[in-house]
Write a structure and sequence with these properties.
CATH superfamily: MetI-like
CATH class: Mainly Alpha
CATH architecture: Orthogonal Bundle
Helix content: over 70%
Radius of gyration: 21 Å
Strand order of the largest sheet: 1-2
CATH topology: MetI-like fold
Shape: globular
Length: 269
């Protein structure tokens, strides 16, 4: 037991160290002008509002595409597929996606979405690439969440005369909702922090997007470009400030998911 406590405390200490380091280095530049202002001097001065809007736009597209497909795939594999060969192929493909390097997704997105479909370097192309990346997590977490639902719930529903779909949609999914939401939040965290894949699909245009086909510079890419630029105090400070804002966005998404999960849990009691 002591070993497990020590491991948990070690992980917590590492997380706190990262957060404290970012706060110390980045809190000095965070103000209203930094959050809502427009970038100047290549991003080394001014604000990051276009980057925030671009990041949120890409995340929304990724989740809007990956969540329905992933949840639907998880339901099919858990409740309908059984031991059919197609289900094994889908499961293998989903697991294989988890091991593909992100830069490969970026290259695929550039070749297919940007060039073949003619979307160009755009929010839509970047969002679709991220949707492909997080699809595996959504499918697997949906499967595991559905498997965790007690069989007695299904039996009670069937005993009351419910059909298979009524049982799945009104009983199983409602009980599995907290676990499914967890998978979606994990996808949001991965999408928000991804750099390699979107570098090849969204471009690096530092202006507010006007459509889904606008090029943007997401916060993760902006952070990377500032951190790897020539040494400049303003660039370094804004890199840490951008990292802190990105962390706050992920933290806010986790808090929202936690609140929704608690609401679902209370409704089941």
């Amino acid at each position: 037991m002591a070993v497990f406590w020590a491991a948990a405390l070690l992980v917590l200490a590492g997380l706190l160290a990262i957060i404290i380091f970012l706060v110390i280095r980045g809190i000095g530049v965070i103000d209203a002008e930094f959050i809502f202002g427009m970038p100047r001097a290549g991003g080394r001065d001014g604000g990051i509002f276009p980057m925030i809007v671009g990041t949120l736009s890409i995340i929304v597209i990724a989740i809007a595409v990956a969540a329905p497909i992933g949840i639907g795939g998880g339901i099919y594999l858990s409740e309908y597929a059984g031991r059919h060969p197609l289900s094994r192929i889908i499961t293998f493909g989903a697991e294989w996606l988890a091991g593909v390097p992100s830069i490969i997704f970026g290259l695929f997105g550039f070749a297919f979405f940007v060039v073949f479909l003619g979307w160009g370097l755009s929010i839509l192309a970047g969002g679709m690439v991220l949707a492909c990346m997080i699809l595996n997590e959504t499918i697997r977490t949906t499967q595991e969440a559905i498997k965790a639902v007690p069989t007695s719930y299904r039996a009670a529903s069937y005993a009351l005369g419910a059909t298979k779909w009524q049982t799945v949609s009104r009983v199983v999914l409602k009980s599995a909702a907290p676990g499914i939401l967890t998978g979606i939040i994990l996808g949001i965290g991965r999408a928000a922090g991804e750099t390699a894949a979107i570098m090849l699909t969204v471009g690096s245009f530092m202006a507010l997007p006007t459509s889904l086909f606008s090029s943007v510079r997401p916060m993760s890419l902006h952070l990377y470009l500032l951190a790897t630029a020539e040494v400049h105090d303003g660039a370094v400070a804004r890199a840490f400030g951008t990292a802190m804002m990105l962390l706050l966005i992920v933290f806010a998404a986790n808090l929202s998911a936690h609140a929704i999960t608690k609401r679902f849990t209370r409704s089941l009691r």
